[in-house]
Design brief:
Strand content: under 5%
Distance between the termini: 24 Å
Mean pLDDT: 87
Shape: elongated
Structural class: mainly alpha
Number of strands: 0
Low-confidence stretches: 1-32
Protein backbone atom coordinates (compact mmCIF):
# COMPACT_ATOMS: atom_id res chain seq x y z
CA UNK A 1 0.00 0.00 0.00
CA UNK A 2 1.52 3.29 -1.07
CA UNK A 3 1.12 6.42 0.95
CA UNK A 4 -1.54 8.50 -0.88
CA UNK A 5 -0.04 11.42 -2.80
CA UNK A 6 -2.46 13.99 -1.41
CA UNK A 7 -2.25 14.13 2.38
CA UNK A 8 -4.55 15.94 4.71
CA UNK A 9 -6.41 17.55 1.81
CA UNK A 10 -9.61 17.96 3.78
CA UNK A 11 -7.72 19.68 6.57
CA UNK A 12 -5.98 22.10 4.23
CA UNK A 13 -9.04 22.85 2.13
CA UNK A 14 -10.83 23.63 5.38
CA UNK A 15 -8.27 26.33 6.03
CA UNK A 16 -9.26 27.99 2.80
CA UNK A 17 -12.96 27.57 3.53
CA UNK A 18 -12.41 29.11 6.97
CA UNK A 19 -11.64 32.40 5.31
CA UNK A 20 -7.91 32.42 4.91
CA UNK A 21 -8.09 34.55 1.78
CA UNK A 22 -6.20 37.49 3.17
CA UNK A 23 -8.04 40.77 3.00
CA UNK A 24 -6.22 43.75 1.60
CA UNK A 25 -3.51 44.75 4.00
CA UNK A 26 -2.79 48.45 3.60
CA UNK A 27 -0.91 48.98 6.86
CA UNK A 28 2.49 47.47 7.42
CA UNK A 29 2.14 43.80 8.46
CA UNK A 30 3.45 42.34 11.68
CA UNK A 31 6.68 40.40 11.34
CA UNK A 32 10.29 40.64 10.29
CA UNK A 33 9.53 41.95 6.79
CA UNK A 34 7.52 45.17 6.70
CA UNK A 35 5.85 46.56 3.58
CA UNK A 36 5.73 50.26 2.65
CA UNK A 37 2.37 52.08 2.41
CA UNK A 38 0.53 51.31 -0.83
CA UNK A 39 -0.15 54.01 -3.42
CA UNK A 40 -2.00 53.83 -6.74
CA UNK A 41 -0.10 54.88 -9.84
CA UNK A 42 -1.85 57.18 -12.30
CA UNK A 43 -4.58 55.23 -14.12
CA UNK A 44 -3.93 52.00 -12.23
CA UNK A 45 -7.02 51.94 -10.06
CA UNK A 46 -9.30 51.69 -13.09
CA UNK A 47 -7.53 48.52 -14.29
CA UNK A 48 -7.69 47.07 -10.80
CA UNK A 49 -11.41 47.76 -10.65
CA UNK A 50 -11.89 45.86 -13.92
CA UNK A 51 -10.64 42.69 -12.23
CA UNK A 52 -13.47 42.94 -9.70
CA UNK A 53 -16.04 43.42 -12.45
CA UNK A 54 -15.02 40.20 -14.28
CA UNK A 55 -17.84 37.67 -14.43
CA UNK A 56 -15.79 34.46 -14.11
CA UNK A 57 -12.27 33.31 -13.14
CA UNK A 58 -11.01 33.18 -16.74
CA UNK A 59 -12.16 36.73 -17.42
CA UNK A 60 -10.68 37.85 -14.13
CA UNK A 61 -7.29 36.39 -15.06
CA UNK A 62 -7.37 38.30 -18.36
CA UNK A 63 -8.06 41.51 -16.45
CA UNK A 64 -5.36 40.72 -13.88
CA UNK A 65 -2.80 40.05 -16.61
CA UNK A 66 -3.74 43.34 -18.29
CA UNK A 67 -3.24 45.15 -14.99
CA UNK A 68 0.14 43.47 -14.53
CA UNK A 69 1.29 44.31 -18.08
CA UNK A 70 0.57 48.00 -17.57
CA UNK A 71 1.75 48.19 -13.95
CA UNK A 72 4.30 45.42 -13.35
CA UNK A 73 5.75 47.21 -10.31
CA UNK A 74 2.44 48.02 -8.63
CA UNK A 75 2.38 48.58 -4.88
CA UNK A 76 -0.63 46.22 -4.98
CA UNK A 77 1.24 43.30 -6.56
CA UNK A 78 0.49 41.18 -3.48
CA UNK A 79 -3.24 41.89 -3.74
CA UNK A 80 -3.11 41.08 -7.44
CA UNK A 81 -1.37 37.78 -6.74
CA UNK A 82 -3.95 36.82 -4.14
CA UNK A 83 -6.69 37.38 -6.71
CA UNK A 84 -4.77 35.30 -9.24
CA UNK A 85 -4.36 32.48 -6.73
CA UNK A 86 -8.10 32.39 -6.08
CA UNK A 87 -8.90 32.41 -9.80
CA UNK A 88 -6.41 29.62 -10.57
CA UNK A 89 -7.81 27.53 -7.73
CA UNK A 90 -11.31 27.88 -9.14
CA UNK A 91 -10.00 26.68 -12.51
CA UNK A 92 -8.08 23.74 -10.93
CA UNK A 93 -4.78 25.07 -12.31
CA UNK A 94 -2.46 23.67 -9.67
CA UNK A 95 0.86 24.63 -11.25
CA UNK A 96 -0.25 28.24 -11.74
CA UNK A 97 -1.63 28.33 -8.21
CA UNK A 98 1.67 27.12 -6.79
CA UNK A 99 3.76 29.54 -8.86
CA UNK A 100 1.58 32.53 -7.96
CA UNK A 101 1.63 31.55 -4.30
CA UNK A 102 5.41 31.34 -4.40
CA UNK A 103 5.61 34.84 -5.90
CA UNK A 104 3.33 36.12 -3.14
CA UNK A 105 5.61 34.66 -0.48
CA UNK A 106 8.58 36.36 -2.10
CA UNK A 107 6.78 39.64 -1.32
CA UNK A 108 5.50 38.65 2.11
CA UNK A 109 6.89 35.32 3.44
CA UNK A 110 4.17 35.06 6.10
CA UNK A 111 1.06 35.70 3.97
CA UNK A 112 -1.34 32.87 4.69
CA UNK A 113 -2.88 32.73 1.22
CA UNK A 114 0.57 32.17 -0.23
CA UNK A 115 1.55 29.62 2.41
CA UNK A 116 -1.60 27.58 1.91
CA UNK A 117 -1.31 27.85 -1.89
CA UNK A 118 2.22 26.46 -1.77
CA UNK A 119 1.69 23.61 0.68
CA UNK A 120 -1.64 22.52 -0.83
CA UNK A 121 -0.43 22.41 -4.41
CA UNK A 122 3.10 21.08 -3.95
CA UNK A 123 1.55 17.62 -3.81
CA UNK A 124 -0.15 18.11 -7.18
CA UNK A 125 2.62 19.42 -9.45
CA UNK A 126 5.42 16.81 -9.56
CA UNK A 127 7.66 19.23 -7.65
CA UNK A 128 11.36 19.72 -8.26
CA UNK A 129 13.85 19.47 -5.41
CA UNK A 130 13.92 23.26 -5.26
CA UNK A 131 10.13 23.43 -5.00
CA UNK A 132 10.11 20.81 -2.25
CA UNK A 133 12.69 22.87 -0.37
CA UNK A 134 10.64 26.05 -0.82
CA UNK A 135 7.47 24.31 0.37
CA UNK A 136 9.29 22.85 3.37
CA UNK A 137 10.47 26.35 4.34
CA UNK A 138 6.87 27.60 4.04
CA UNK A 139 5.72 24.78 6.32
CA UNK A 140 8.40 25.63 8.86
CA UNK A 141 7.16 29.23 9.04
CA UNK A 142 3.65 27.97 9.76
CA UNK A 143 4.91 25.56 12.42
CA UNK A 144 7.50 27.81 14.07
CA UNK A 145 5.82 31.24 13.76
CA UNK A 146 2.03 30.80 13.74
CA UNK A 147 1.39 34.09 15.53
CA UNK A 148 3.22 36.03 12.83
CA UNK A 149 1.23 34.20 10.14
CA UNK A 150 -2.05 34.97 11.90
CA UNK A 151 -0.96 38.60 12.22
CA UNK A 152 -0.61 38.89 8.45
CA UNK A 153 -4.21 37.86 7.76
CA UNK A 154 -7.50 39.27 8.97
CA UNK A 155 -9.24 35.99 9.79
CA UNK A 156 -12.54 35.37 11.59
CA UNK A 157 -11.03 32.20 13.10
CA UNK A 158 -7.60 30.74 13.80
CA UNK A 159 -7.26 27.75 11.45
CA UNK A 160 -4.97 24.88 12.52
CA UNK A 161 -1.96 25.97 10.49
CA UNK A 162 0.58 24.13 12.66
CA UNK A 163 -1.19 20.83 11.98
CA UNK A 164 -1.32 21.64 8.27
CA UNK A 165 2.35 22.57 8.18
CA UNK A 166 3.46 19.40 9.94
CA UNK A 167 1.23 17.29 7.67
CA UNK A 168 2.94 18.55 4.53
CA UNK A 169 6.38 18.49 6.14
CA UNK A 170 5.89 14.79 6.79
CA UNK A 171 4.91 14.26 3.16
CA UNK A 172 7.92 16.25 1.91
CA UNK A 173 10.26 14.27 4.17
CA UNK A 174 8.90 11.06 2.67
CA UNK A 175 9.36 12.35 -0.89
CA UNK A 176 12.98 13.13 -0.06
CA UNK A 177 13.40 9.75 1.65
CA UNK A 178 14.63 11.66 4.68
CA UNK A 179 13.14 9.11 7.05
CA UNK A 180 14.95 10.34 10.16
CA UNK A 181 13.42 13.81 9.74
CA UNK A 182 10.06 12.29 8.80
CA UNK A 183 10.01 10.42 12.11
CA UNK A 184 10.56 13.68 14.00
CA UNK A 185 7.94 15.65 12.07
CA UNK A 186 5.33 12.89 12.13
CA UNK A 187 5.78 12.30 15.85
CA UNK A 188 5.26 16.05 16.35
CA UNK A 189 2.11 15.94 14.20
CA UNK A 190 0.62 12.97 16.04
CA UNK A 191 1.43 14.53 19.39
CA UNK A 192 -0.45 17.64 18.30
CA UNK A 193 -3.31 15.75 16.64
CA UNK A 194 -3.50 12.00 17.39
CA UNK A 195 -6.37 11.54 14.90
CA UNK A 196 -4.14 11.87 11.81
CA UNK A 197 -4.24 8.28 10.59
CA UNK A 198 -2.29 8.99 7.39
CA UNK A 199 0.52 10.31 9.55
CA UNK A 200 0.50 7.03 11.47
CA UNK A 201 0.85 5.10 8.23
CA UNK A 202 3.69 7.33 6.99
CA UNK A 203 5.39 7.05 10.36
CA UNK A 204 5.20 3.27 10.10
CA UNK A 205 6.84 3.48 6.67
CA UNK A 206 9.62 5.76 7.94
CA UNK A 207 10.29 3.52 10.94
CA UNK A 208 10.31 0.38 8.81
CA UNK A 209 13.11 1.97 6.77
CA UNK A 210 15.31 1.88 9.91
CA UNK A 211 16.35 -1.66 9.08
CA UNK A 212 19.19 -1.84 11.58
CA UNK A 213 16.97 -1.01 14.55
CA UNK A 214 14.75 -3.91 15.71
CA UNK A 215 12.90 -1.62 18.13
CA UNK A 216 11.99 0.71 15.26
CA UNK A 217 10.67 -2.29 13.34
CA UNK A 218 8.32 -3.22 16.20
CA UNK A 219 7.17 0.39 16.56
CA UNK A 220 6.46 0.50 12.81
CA UNK A 221 4.11 -2.46 13.19
CA UNK A 222 2.18 -0.55 15.84
CA UNK A 223 1.73 2.55 13.67
CA UNK A 224 0.62 0.54 10.64
CA UNK A 225 -1.89 -1.19 12.89
CA UNK A 226 -3.03 2.17 14.28
CA UNK A 227 -3.67 3.48 10.77
CA UNK A 228 -5.59 0.33 9.90
CA UNK A 229 -7.80 0.14 12.99
CA UNK A 230 -8.50 3.75 14.01
CA UNK A 231 -12.02 4.73 12.91
CA UNK A 232 -12.58 8.22 14.32
CA UNK A 233 -12.13 11.69 12.76
CA UNK A 234 -9.41 11.80 10.08
CA UNK A 235 -9.37 8.00 9.78
CA UNK A 236 -8.34 6.41 6.51
CA UNK A 237 -11.20 5.63 4.11
CA UNK A 238 -12.63 2.12 4.69
CA UNK A 239 -11.00 0.59 1.62
CA UNK A 240 -7.58 1.96 2.56
CA UNK A 241 -8.05 0.76 6.13
CA UNK A 242 -8.78 -2.72 4.82
CA UNK A 243 -5.59 -2.75 2.74
CA UNK A 244 -3.59 -1.33 5.65
CA UNK A 245 -4.95 -4.01 7.97
CA UNK A 246 -3.92 -6.76 5.56
CA UNK A 247 -0.45 -5.25 5.38
CA UNK A 248 -0.11 -4.82 9.15
CA UNK A 249 -1.22 -8.41 9.69
CA UNK A 250 1.28 -9.69 7.14
CA UNK A 251 4.29 -7.87 8.58
CA UNK A 252 3.26 -8.95 12.10
CA UNK A 253 3.41 -12.58 10.96
CA UNK A 254 6.74 -12.02 9.21
CA UNK A 255 8.22 -10.43 12.32
CA UNK A 256 6.84 -12.78 14.98
CA UNK A 257 6.24 -15.92 12.92
CA UNK A 258 2.63 -16.23 14.11
CA UNK A 259 -0.63 -14.29 14.16
CA UNK A 260 -0.92 -14.73 17.91
CA UNK A 261 -1.09 -11.44 19.76
CA UNK A 262 -2.07 -9.28 16.81
CA UNK A 263 -5.67 -8.82 17.93
CA UNK A 264 -4.48 -7.56 21.31
CA UNK A 265 -2.21 -5.05 19.59
CA UNK A 266 -5.03 -3.93 17.29
CA UNK A 267 -7.27 -3.31 20.30
CA UNK A 268 -4.64 -1.04 21.85
CA UNK A 269 -3.77 0.76 18.60
CA UNK A 270 -7.42 1.53 17.89
CA UNK A 271 -7.56 3.89 20.87
CA UNK A 272 -3.94 5.03 21.24
CA UNK A 273 -1.78 6.97 18.79
CA UNK A 274 1.46 5.87 20.45
CA UNK A 275 2.63 2.46 21.64
CA UNK A 276 3.75 1.38 25.08
CA UNK A 277 5.73 -1.53 26.43
CA UNK A 278 7.73 -3.57 23.97
CA UNK A 279 6.40 -1.61 20.98
CA UNK A 280 7.61 1.78 22.21
Amino acid sequence: MRTPAALGSLLIVSLLDAGCASRRIIAQPVGPKSLPPKLWQSGEEQLARATRDASDPSSQLVALDNWEIHFPNSDFADVRLEQKILAYQQLYKWRETFDSSRKLLEIDPFRLRGLIGVITNVQLIAPTDDELQFAAAACRRMVDSPEIVYGHSDLPTRPPIVTAGLTILGWIDMQRKDYAQAILDLYALLTLDPTQARASYMLGTALLAQRDDPRAQRTAIFHFTRAATYDGPNALPPEQRKIALEYATRIWRLYFGTADGFEALASIARTNAFPSGEFR
